[in-house]
UniProtKB/TrEMBL annotation:
<dbReference type="GO" id="GO:0005829">
    <property type="term" value="C:cytosol"/>
</dbReference>
<keyword id="KW-0963">Cytoplasm</keyword>
<comment type="function">
    <text>Positive regulator of amino acid starvation-induced autophagy.</text>
</comment>
<keyword id="KW-0175">Coiled coil</keyword>
<dbReference type="Pfam" id="PF10224">
    <property type="entry name" value="DUF2205"/>
</dbReference>
<dbReference type="GO" id="GO:0005802">
    <property type="term" value="C:trans-Golgi network"/>
</dbReference>
<dbReference type="InterPro" id="IPR019357">
    <property type="entry name" value="SCOC"/>
</dbReference>
<dbReference type="GO" id="GO:0000139">
    <property type="term" value="C:Golgi membrane"/>
</dbReference>
<feature type="region of interest" description="Disordered">
    <location>
        <begin position="1"/>
        <end position="83"/>
    </location>
</feature>
<comment type="similarity">
    <text>Belongs to the SCOC family.</text>
</comment>
<protein>
    <recommendedName>
        <fullName>BZIP transcription factor</fullName>
    </recommendedName>
</protein>
<feature type="compositionally biased region" description="Basic and acidic residues">
    <location>
        <begin position="1"/>
        <end position="12"/>
    </location>
</feature>
<keyword id="KW-0333">Golgi apparatus</keyword>
<keyword id="KW-0472">Membrane</keyword>
Amino acid sequence: MSDEPTPTRDDQSPASSSASSIDDHEIHAPVPKRPALPSRKSSGTLIVPSGSAQIGPVPQHLQPDDARAMSPRRTSEDLENMGRQAREELHRHARALQESLLLIFNRIEAVKEEHDKLDNNNKFLQKYIGDLMSTSKITATASRGRK
């Protein structure tokens, strides 16, 4: 059928299988070993006596070109300026609210006066109409009695 020779039993001998196992060992890399840790000094005790000068924040002296010196933290002057500006803004807002409240109060007073005036005129007209009605009844009964 084909011109290629077919493998025989001699090709699959134990010697050839041991050669393949050697090839398998060559594929696997050796297992790396972890390097030994360097020795370190002890950090000492973390307990500080209560009367020690080591208690509290340690002042740091930073150079001007140090990144920590260029931190966006605010100084006490900045905080005072911000507080003053906030208080001024609150005072302006409070004044504006008081002025608007005063305008509303004045408008309420004007509407109340207008209401009282219209109420008095309404009462006057009701009394006038009532008087006219009673007068017309009197004249109507009097004119009937004459006829």
